[in-house]
TrEMBL record, chain A:
Signal peptide positions (record): 1-18
Keyword GTP-binding in record: no
Pfam families registered for this protein in UniProt: DUF3823, DUF3823_C
Domain spans labelled DUF3823: 33-119, 124-237
PROSITE patterns on file: PROKAR_LIPOPROTEIN (PS51257)
InterPro entries cross-referenced by the UniProt entry: DUF3823_C (IPR041186), DUF3823_N (IPR024278)
Species this protein is from: Chitinophaga agrisoli
Name this polypeptide is given: DUF3823 domain-containing protein
Keywords noted in UniProt: Signal
UniProtKB/TrEMBL annotation, chain B:
Organism: Chitinophaga agrisoli
Domain of life: Bacteria
Domain RagB/SusD: 297-613
Cross-referenced Pfam families: SusD-like_3, SusD_RagB
Major place of residence: membrane
Subcellular location(s) of the protein: Cell outer membrane
PROSITE patterns listed in its UniProt record: PROKAR_LIPOPROTEIN
Signal peptide span: 1-18
Coiled-coil spans in chain: none
One GO term describing the cellular component: cell outer membrane
Protein's name according to its UniProt entry: RagB/SusD family nutrient uptake outer membrane protein
Family listed: Belongs to the SusD family.
Length: 242, 614
């Protein structure tokens, strides 16, 4: 009797398991898309950004006329890559970063497709230099606007400091950008439209109270009041506080 | 045998006759139009369904859907307050993102219920006197405007559905409607409210609309439209939906909307008044604005009761367990909110040292009565118990407040904090380190900022009656003070400063505040609104429609007022610290409009383009 029940149960189990098997003959996400975001003012270099500082928006037109967008975040070096995409026809737009809006590009993504985008930053940080005075980091810089007509209001300059080389608005020690002590202002507010005065000013951004004996990574960001309020960055500098 | 033949024949005939009858009777378990639209009780019951679905952002409302749910009629956790997304309160929300995207509100089923009444009630007009028909149709227009207002303030342009849609009577192509422009939706809200005003009588039963309720809603809605037109034209997110007018209103329309807001607000003059039953005690008077059921200030309320199983939990969730019977509190007014009234509180001497107080209650001296009636300060009392709020004990304290708040606080080694109310200092026989009402280093079921919400808290309710789902004070969805503020803002935007000042001073007089002068700015009027309508779930929408949310909430951290006991001096001091959770709040510009619900976009591709950046 027990044998019969067991055999019957095993039989049922096999049938139950087998019943769920469906043949999935759709291709997997075996395509990839990668490329560089280039700075149009100096096309040898990548656009200066941070992790997720720019997003590459993908709309899979071969799937639907109104697809739900997916986004590839930028890497800190200004490149992007996603190797788990479905092959097909896509509309691609770099977006959500501190650059003049660009028109979308339609292309087929099959295998590992490469495409570079040229972006024009709202602002560039030039003549960037830094020095340490005691436990205060002093960074000085000038601002350059590659295109001034229609440039949104410039909001502010913010220092970002972190203890790894990944540093920017998305990764920093907040104490060094907005100190809890209200009397200390590390952020320089500008809140005005582009002018010759801004172009001629040498801005000095100070970060006091760095901890002695540590290594920090720092950069300065400037942002304009566009749809995204993202930052154009300086290069990253390494600081060893004695 | 013959008998058998008869039986068979009769049976056969019987079957033959019966077979041609079709079972065509109305189902008895569904209420039919003839029952609803035949008598007054039927229509009243139908209206009750609509009013119940009205998107009133009451005690139960949250700005997010939680586990895919709705923002309305949520549970007892009433500290999930929209104000805690944007710095009016600090609360359980980790950041602004927790609620900025909304919850996919899409009440077209409720709008269909309204449209059905609008189509079918006139067909049964013979059953009722004309005034009754007009009143109900007016209420229906009011309710439909209420739904569309709730939609347009979230999404901008959405499809305007004026008639009952039928499926499968209509084809899919007919049912997949396009979005309407944002401007057209605001105009539709205005026209529905105009119809409602003309159709409805002057008086209504409690919690139901009359013509002035419609006018009050119109003043609110048109003010929203005007500010969105004016400020949204300068601060916006670019995208297809904006280029095609689905979000955004041309700035040239602003003046017209402001005028409509002002005109609508003016209609209420003389019909409602500010609550002023106990003007000799302005603090108590202001407390009772929200608790006196018969306030002449109430325009539209929603009632709750134990018997109908609708009682809420405001009392149990706004103050801590020390004062209540159940539940816990998790949302607390920020110091930034308190400083809206008269700037920074006088807690620092001119030489920079913290001012010494004999007891914490001394801080309340000279504070505007309305503020004292809106938040519980340290030292205030409720149900015979005192808010003994205390962050910790300093053995001794020297130097300035600013130095103590810096990176290397000189008195830090002499400071004692605690996560439990049992901790004493000195260890044996000492004084309690933190009060029963906070401020703990561990959790947030006691205040994080030094303050508690007082508005709407029923001080007469016994502590044992302050449990979950036991509070019955009404939610005031619209009150006359808001209408006055709508009017003042609209007047100022139109350049009529005199009227704005007059109206603001009515509110300030009742509040016990100093009168405004002609030197006021738009910020004065906005600040007055934030003060008067605090914790009434308006601040979130105000920040959005003024298009300043992305500046007010820009990696912003909010502050607490921390009372400390100085052990050697036997005095108290207050320090202005960042609230202990140190949360930062950021509003991304794209959230000036919520994304259209993904499920609806999937069903109807004509709803595209979605709002910019979604």
């Amino acid at each position: 009797m027990h044998k019969i029940i067991k055999a019957w149960l095993i039989g049922c189990g096999v049938i139950a398991l087998a019943s769920c098997t469906k043949t999935d003959n759709m291709p997997g996400p075996n395509a990839g898309f990668q490329g560089r975001l280039l700075d149009v003012t100096n096309s040898k270099n990548n656009f200066v950004t941070e992790t997720n500082g720019v997003q590459v928006k993908l709309e899979e037109l071969s799937w639907s006329a109104t697809p739900t967008p997916q986004y590839i975040p930028s890497k800190p070096d200004g490149s992007f890559e996603d190797t788990k995409l479905f092959g097909g026809h896509y509309r691609v737009t770099p977006t959500a970063g501190a650059f003049w809006p660009v028109d979308p590009v339609e292309l087929d993504i099959n295998g590992l497709t490469t495409h570079d985008f040229e972006l024009m930053p709202y602002l560039k940080i030039t003549n960037f230099s830094h020095r340490l005075s005691g436990d205060t980091l002093i960074m000085s810089l000038n601002l350059v606007a590659p295109k001034t007509e229609g440039l949104p209001t410039i909001i502010d300059l913010q220092p970002f400091v972190n203890n790894t080389k990944f540093v920017g608005a998305g990764a920093n020690i907040s104490q060094y950008t907005t100190p809890t002590d209200q009397s200390k202002k590390n952020i320089i507010s500008i809140n005005s439209n582009w002018s010759d005065a801004i172009a001629q000013t040498t801005y000095v951004v100070k970060v006091p109270d760095l901890i002695h004996g540590r290594t920090f990574y720092a950069r300065v960001g400037v942002r304009v009041n566009d749809s995204y309020k993202q930052f154009n960055y300086s290069e990253i500098v390494e600081i060893q506080v004695p | 045998m013959k008998q058998l033949k008869y039986i068979i024949t009769i049976a056969f005939a019987g079957l033959l006759l019966a077979s041609c009858h079709k079972l065509d009777i109305a189902p008895l378990n569904l209420i039919q139009d003839k029952d609803v639209f035949a008598n007054e009780n039927g229509v009243t019951a139908y209206m009750a369904t609509i009013y119940k679905a009205l998107p009133i952002e009451d005690f139960y409302y949250r700005n997010e859907g939680g586990n895919g749910g709705n923002g309305f009629n949520r549970g007892w956790e009433q500290f999930y307050h929209p104000g805690a997304l944007c710095g009016e309160l600090v609360g359980p929300y980790g950041s602004t993102y927790d609620g900025a995207g909304g919850f996919g509100y899409w009440p077209y089923a409720d709008i269909r219920t309204v449209n059905y009444l609008l189509e079918n009630l006139p067909k049964n007009a013979a059953n009722f006197p004309k005034e009754k028909i007009d009143q109900w149709l007016g209420e229906a227009h009011f309710c439909r405007a209420y739904f569309y207002f709730a939609l347009v303030k979230r999404y901008g342009g959405i499809p305007i559905i004026r008639n009952v849609q039928n499926y499968p009577g209509q084809t899919l192509e007919e049912l997949q409607v396009h979005r309407d422009k944002e401007l057209d939706v605001w105009k539709f809200v205005a026209s529905d409210l105009d119809s409602a005003y003309l159709l409805m009588p002057e008086k209504s039963v409690r919690a139901r609309a009359n013509r002035y309720v419609a006018a009050a809603l119109k003043s609110r809605a048109m003010l929203y439209a005007g500010t969105i037109a004016k400020y949204g034209a300068a601060n916006f997110v670019a995208g297809d939906a904006r280029d095609q007018g689905y979000v955004g209103i041309p700035a040239s329309e602003a003046a017209g909307f402001f005028k409509q807001a002002w005109d609508a607000a003016k209609l209420l003059e003389g019909h409602y008044s500010l609550y002023a039953k106990k003007l000799d005690d302005k603090e108590q008077n202001y407390v009772d604005v929200f608790l006196d059921q018969d306030s002449p200030e109430n325009i539209l309320v929603r009632d709750y009761s134990l018997t109908s199983n609708t009682a809420h939990s405001w009392d149990a969730t706004m103050t801590c367990r020390y004062m209540t019977a159940d539940g816990l509190s998790r949302a607390y007014p920020t110091l930034e909110f308190v400083e809206r009234f008269a700037g920074q509180l006088p807690v620092v001497n001119t030489d920079g040292t913290p001012r010494r107080f004999n007891n914490t209650a001394e801080l309340m001296q000279g504070v505007e009565p309305r503020l004292l009636a809106t938040v519980y300060f340290p030292g205030a009392s409720l149900r015979g118990l005192q808010f003994d709020t205390q962050r910790g004990i300093y053995e001794h304290f020297t130097g300035t407040a600013a130095a103590e708040l810096g990176l290397n606080p000189p008195n830090g080694p002499f400071r004692h904090l605690s996560g439990t109310t049992n901790a004493l200092w000195p260890d044996d026989n000492g004084k309690r380190i933190i009060g029963f009402t906070g401020i703990s280093t561990n959790d947030d079921d006691r205040t994080r900022t030094g303050f508690y919400v007082r508005k709407y808290v029923d001080y007469k309710r016994e502590q044992s009656q302050c449990g979950l789902y036991m509070s019955t004070q009404s939610w005031i969805d619209m009150r006359y003070a808001e209408v006055l503020l709508n009017r003042a803002e609209a007047a100022f935007e139109m350049g009529n400063t005199t009227d704005a000042v007059t109206v603001i001073n009515q509110i300030r007089d009742r509040a016990g505040a100093t009168p405004a002068t002609a030197a006021i700015t738009i910020d004065t009027i906005r600040n007055e609104r934030c003060k008067e309508l605090a914790f009434e779930k308006q601040y979130w929408w105000d920040l959005r429609r003024w298009r300043i949310a992305d500046q007010v909430l820009d990696n912003t951290r909010f502050h607490a007022l921390m009372p400390y006991y100085l052990y050697d001096e036997k005095k108290y001091i207050f320090l202005r610290e960042i609230e202990p959770f140190q949360r930062s709040y950021t509003f991304e510009k794209k959230y000036y409009y919520e994304p259209l619900p993904g499920g609806e976009l999937g069903k109807n591709p004509n709803l595209y383009p979605n709002n910019p950046n979604f």
